[in-house]
């Protein structure tokens, strides 16, 4: 009987974490470039009461086993692109494809993002293209991008090449290109907050965008919205709540059966 208590308890714990993941998705429905997550489960160890075997044409063709519940295994991000929303800001960029922008992170390390709502930060070296938190955006060579121009005249092509239109209407190249990279296993990227991802041994090293798969396109005057579907998440929330409720009823049933067994002497 105690097995049922612990098994149903593992189900409640797992569904509680499932609700946490769904809640995080819903809370980020308006976060630029956010990618929704899905919690994956696996079953736990089994108690084998009778093992299947065949010997000289006789034996048991099937096992007699009882499981010990479930355990959360992984959170898997869905990197499907969100809708591209038109803006009037020349510093707003969206990636149409699987690439990531490269950013110099808060600890001096390189981090990656899909959030292209960039800003201009004034420094001793000039006007630097940065994220909303002030971290420098890097070009394809890993160098900070300097924009000592009228940003209203800024042009960014689909491959990330930067230029501006001077007072004579002539397009002048800036000699820098927005750094876009991809990963062999983007599901291995670690979310570190502030719309940033960090690479690790599971994701593999960042490679230039054009070297892996189909080339991504940069869309100026656009931002990528979150790919969270509110209705879908609400359905998942209801299913998780019902699963939690069913597991709690299993605990109640096991407790009642234990109570009956304890009262047999009376």
Summarize the structure.
The protein has 266 residues and is α+β, with helices and mostly antiparallel strands. It has two domains: 2-79 and 228-262, no CATH class; 84-224, no CATH class.
Would you mind describing this structure in some detail?
There is one protein chain. With 266 residues, the chain is α+β, with helices and mostly antiparallel strands. The protein folds into 2 domains: 2-79 and 228-262, no CATH class; 84-224, no CATH class. The protein has helices at residues 2-27, 230-262, and strands at residues 37-43, 46-50, 53-55, 58-60, 64-67, 70-77, 84-86, 93-96, 100-104, 110-113, 119-123, 126-130, 154-156, 161-165, 171-177, 180-182, 190-193, 196-198, 207-208, 217-220, 222-224. Helix 1 runs antiparallel to helix 2. Residues 219-264 form the Flagellar basal-body/hook protein C-terminal domain. Residues 7-35 form the Flagellar basal body rod protein N-terminal domain. Belongs to the flagella basal body rod proteins family.
